[in-house]
Amino acid sequence: MWTFYLRKGVKWVDDKGKPTEYEVTADDFYEGFRYVADPKNGIKNFGSIRSLLVGLADYYKGLQDVDSGKDKNRTRQQVLDTFKTVGIRVIDKYTIEYTTAKPTPWFLTYLTMDLFFPVEKAFMDKVGAENFGTAKDKLIFSGCYYISDWQRDKLIVLKRNENYWDKKNVFIKEITMQKVSDPAIALQMFQRGELSSAGLNADQVKGLQNTKWKDYIYMTDRSSVTFWWALNFQSKNPEFAAFVKNLNFRKALYYGIDHVKLLSLDDPLSPQNLLRTTIIPEEVIFDEKGKDYTDYPGLKEFKNAGNTYNPKLATEYFMKAVAELTDGKGNIKGVAAQAVDLKPVAQFNIDGKLPLQILIIHSTSSSDTKFALLMQAMFKDVFGPENVEVVLGQYVDDQYDEVIAPQKFDMAYDSFRFAYGDPLAQLGRLVTGGAVNDGGWSDPEFDALVAEADKKIKLSDRYAIFAKAEAMILDRVYIIPFRCGGSAYAIGNVVPYTYPRSGFGVTRFKYKGMKLESKPLLASRVEEIRRQFYADLEKLQGK
Amino acid sequence: MGKYILRRFWQSIITVLIVLFVMFMLLRLMPKENYFTRDDYINMTEEDRTAYLRNLGVLDNPLVQFVRFLRGFVTGDLGRSITVYPKTPISEILKEKIPYSLWFGLVSVLLSVILGFLMGIGMANNKDKLGDQLGTMYVVAVRAIPSLVYLFLIQMWITHLFNLPMVFYEDEPASWILPAISLSLSGIAWYAIWLRRFMVDEENKDYIKFAIAKGLPRNYIMKRHVLRNALVPLVQYLPSQILLTIAGSLIIESIYSIPGMGGLLVYAIRQQDNTLVQALVCIYSILGVFGVFLGDILMAIVDPRIKLTSAKIEREVTA
Fold first, then answer.
1. Do A510 and A443 share a structural domain?
2. B164 occurs within a structural domain
3. Which residue in chain A is spatially nearest to B157 when comparing CA positions?
4. For residue B101, which of A223, A257, B227, B260 is within the disulfide window of CB 3.0 to 4.6 Å?
C-alpha cells in the first residue's frame, strides 16, 4: 500500500500561467486514474499497469465485457460503480492511497508514466472529455511549466509557472521545442544560434573534425532501451528450425557475430559505446544497498563480456552442431528439400543439406540494409559458404506486423523499451508466450525462476533470482542482446545532469532544474560534470 | 451554358462519390494491426484490441461506416483524427494547417504566373538568342536537378548570405521569403517553357505570316494574336492549381518547418488514420474535380471559339 500526501493549496494554471479556480487535490489523481481505466477512452498503454493495483484488471475487463455485449446482466453504469473496489482511494482532500495487487517495491518508477497524472474533473467536463488535451486551451497545468503556445507540427513553447511552489529551482524561463526535419538543418541552426542543442549523426561528427566545433561534441548517456536478436524457434524454414533448437548452434551464433563491427555502421568512431550484452540495462535499477542489478553474480560476467566475437570458438560450436544434426555427409537429419514460402518477405528453396540457410530480415532503409549485408558477409567469413548461407528478406513498413507476428524470419532484431524499474518488465515478457518473446522459445526452468523471483519482496533476494534467470537465458542463447539506445553525439548549451533523469515514463520531458549556458559546453567539461555526477551518485548509494 | 454547368455538376458529384467509395473500401482492407504501434500492440490483449477498434467504429459493416461518414461530411462533421493527432477534431487540424499552405501556395502561383509569363514571352520574342538560351538553361536546370539539391542549397547559402532565419517563423516576415521563392521556382519554369512553346508554334502559323505580310506591327501581332492564343491551353490548369495549393508542398514545408498540409495525407495513410485520410481525399477530390470544371469554363471565356454545349465539349484550339 502506498500513501501519498499532497502539497496543499496548489492551483492548476491555464495556458497563460494564471491560476484557475481549481486546486490540485487527491480527487484529481483519482479521476485521472478512473479515466485511464476506462476502455472507452482507448488508452493504449494501459496493459503495462493492468495487474498493478488490486481489482484493476477485473474492473477493466468488466467494462470490456459490458461494451462487447458479452456481459448482459449488468449495465455499464453498474460496472462503473464498482470502481471503488479498485486499489486507489481518496483518504482526504490531500491524501491518496494506492493498493497494489502484490508487494511492488518499484512502484515509484510507475509514477513517471503519464497514466498516473492527475486530471481536474471539473475542467475536463467543461471542455468535454473528448476534447481534453487536444490543444493548449484544453489543458491545465500543475507542474513547473505550462504550455503557452502549441502549433501542431511546428513548435511547443513552455513557460515557467510563476505559481509553482519550487520556482527558485526552475532556471529556464521559456523553452521552445521546435520541429526540425533534417539533422543538417538542425546543426546549421545550432551553429547560427537558433537552437540550444542538436543531436549529430556519425557523418556530421566526421564533417566537424577539422572545425572548431570538434571540441564541443560529446556523447549522451546510454538509454534503458535494449536491442536484441530474436532467434525464431517456430521458424517455417525447416533447416533453421532444426538447427536453432541445438545449443551448440546457438553458441556458434553467439560467438560468430562481430557486434562491434556491426555497430560501427551506426557509430564509426566509438562503436563499443553502443554495445550492451545484458537484457536489463545497467545503471538503472539498484537494490536496497545501492547495488546495480547487472552486477549480480552470474549476470556480471555477461555484462563485462564485451564483444563476444570469437570466430574460432564459433566454428568449433558450429561443427559440434553439424555433427549432431547431420548424417556426416551434409544432409540435415529430418529435413527434406522443399520450397520455403514466406511471401512477401522472402521465398527460397532449401535442399535439406549444408549450407544451412538462415533468413535475416531487414527494413528498406539504407542503414538497415547495410547492417544485413554485413551480417551476410560476416557469416560467410566465419562459418564458410559451404556451411552457412544467409538469405536476406525485406519488409516495407512495420517489422512487427509484417515479420514478427506472422513468424516470417529466422533472425531479426528489434529495440525494446524498459517500461518500469524491475527486471520483470523485460524478463516477465520473455517467458513462454510472453509479449516480447518474438522467437517463440520456451524454457520451463526460466519460467519457474521468473515466477519464483516475482514472489520475493526484498530487492536483493529478488534480483539474485532474476539475475540467475537472465544469465541462464543468455547462456542458453535464446536471444542475443547487443546494443543500447541513446549514446548519441550531441552538441549544445544545456548543462547535462541538471534535470530529472530516469529510464522510464515521460521523464525525458522534464526540465526542472535544467541549466543553460550562453556558450556551447566543451566536451571536456561535459566529461567533468559526468564524472562528478557519478561520484555524487556513488556517495548517495553509500559506496 | 446553364444546362452544361448543371450536367457537369452532377457528373462531378458522381466522380467524387466513386473516388470516395473506392478509397473508403481500400482503407477497410488494410490490416487491423496498423492501428497500433508495436509497443501498444504487444501490451494489449486481443480483447483490448477488439475493444479499442470497436470504440473507433471500424469493426462495423463498411457500408454502414460509409453512410455514417457521408452523413457526417454533409453536416460538416469530419470526425476526429485517430492516430496522427489522437482525438483532435479534423476540422480543427485543417483550420490550423490550411492557411499556411494556402498563403504560400497562392503567393507562389502568383509569382509563377507573373514571372513565368514574362520569362516565356521574353524567350519567345528572343528565340534562339542569348536570353532564350539562358531561360532554357534555367528551365532545364530546375527540371533536371533533383529539387531537394537546389532547395537545400538555397536554404543553406542564401540564409547565410543575407542573414535570414533558417526556418519559417510566423512572427518574422523575413523568414517567409525563401519558402515562397523556393515554392515558385519550378512553376516559373513550367509556365515559361510552355508559353514559349505555344507562342513559337503560333508564330509559325499562316495567319500570323499573313498578318506580318499585311504589315501589322510586330508588337501588335504578338500581343493581339500570338500571346492570346498561346494562353488558351495554359489557363485551363490555373483553377486546379490555385485550388490545390491547400494541399501544400511536402519538401518545402518540411525543410522550412512550415506546419502546413504538405505530407499530411502521406502520414495519415502510413499511420492508418482512416478518418483523416477520408477527409483529406474527400476535400482534394472535390477541389480537383471542381478545378477542372472551372478550367473548362475559363477556357471558354478566354477563347470565344470554344463552346460548351450540353451535348459535347468542343475544345477546338487550333486556328
1. no
2. yes
3. A188
4. B260
pLDDT of B313 > 60? The answer is no
Task: Tell whether B243 is covered by a domain.
Answer: yes
Selection from A19, A16, A260, A2 nearest residue A120 by Cα: A19
Q: Which residues of B touch A67 (CB under 8 A)?
A: 51, 54-55
Do A210 and A229 lie in a common domain? no
CATH number of the domain that residue B261 is part of: 1.10.3720.10
Residue B99 has pLDDT above 80, yes or no: yes
Does residue A411 share a domain with residue A332?
Answer: yes
Query: Which domain does A102 fall in, by range?
Result: 2-169
Write the CATH number for A108. 3.90.76.10
Structurally, chain A folds into a number of domains equal to 3
Report the pLDDT value the prediction gives residue B304, as an integer from 0 to 100.
Answer: 78
pLDDT given for residue B13 in this prediction: 87
> Looking at the structure, do residues A47 and A100 belong to the same domain, yes or no?
yes
**Chain A residues with CB-CB distance to B under 8 A?**
39-40, 42, 44-48, 61, 64, 67-68, 130-131, 133-135, 151-154, 178-182, 184-185, 188-189, 192, 194, 397-401, 405, 414, 417, 429, 435-436
Same domain, A147 and A135: yes
Same domain, A214 and A234: no
Q: Scanning the structure block, which residue is given the C-alpha cell 540457410?
A: A357
Would the CB atoms of B259 and A154 count as touching at under 8 Å? Answer: yes
Q: A341 — alpha (psi -120 to 50), left (phi > 0) or beta?
A: beta
**B295 close to B240: Cβ distance less than 8 angstroms:** yes
Q: How many CB atoms lie within 10 A of CB B87?
A: 16
ipTM: 0.81
Q: How far is B248 from chain A (nearest CA, A)?
A: 14
Q: Are the Cβ atoms of A194 and B165 closer than 8 angstroms? A: yes
Q: Are residues A518 and A474 in the same domain?
A: no
Residue B170: is it exposed, middle or buried by C-beta count within 10 angstroms (0-12/13-18/19+)?
middle
Across the interface, whether the CB atoms of B97 and A429 are under 8 A apart is answered no
| Residues of B with Cβ-Cβ distance to A135 under 8 angstroms | 88, 92
The answer to whether position B26 is within a domain reads no
- Check: CB of residue B310 under 8 Å from CB of residue B4: yes
Residue in chain A closest to B56 (alpha carbons) equals A42
pLDDT of residue B288 exceeding 60, the answer is yes
Query: How far is the C-alpha of B57 from the C-alpha of B43, rounded, in Å?
Result: 21
Question: At B318, is the pLDDT very low, low, confident or very high (cuts 50, 70, 90)?
Answer: very low
Cα A377 from Cα A210, distance rounded (Å): 33
pLDDT tens-place string over residues A484-525: 998 899 999 999 999 988 878 888 889 999 999 999 999 999
A414 to chain B, closest Cα gap in Å: 10
The reply to whether A414 and A512 lie within a common domain is no
Q: What is the pLDDT of residue B84?
A: 87
Mutate to test the interface with A, among B257, B261, B270, B273 (most CBs of A within 10 A): B257
Alpha carbon distances (Å) from A305 to A265, A464, A481, A482: 21, 19, 12, 11
User: pTM of the prediction?
Assistant: 0.85
- pLDDT for B308 equals 65
User: Strand, helix or coil at A19?
Assistant: strand
pLDDT of amino acid B309:
60
The helix (H) or strand (E) run that includes residue B308 is strand B307-308
Confidence of residue B120 (pLDDT cuts 50, 70, 90): very high
Across A72-76, A445-449, B225-229, B260-264, the highest mean pLDDT is recorded for A445-449
What residues of B are in contact with residue A400 (Cβ under 8 Å)? 33, 38, 41-42
For residue A396, give how far its alpha carbon lies from the nearest alpha carbon of chain B (Å): 11
Low-confidence ranges of chain A (pLDDT < 70): 542-543
Asked if residue A184 is part of any domain, the answer here is: no
Choose the final residue of a domain: A446, A461, A486.
A486
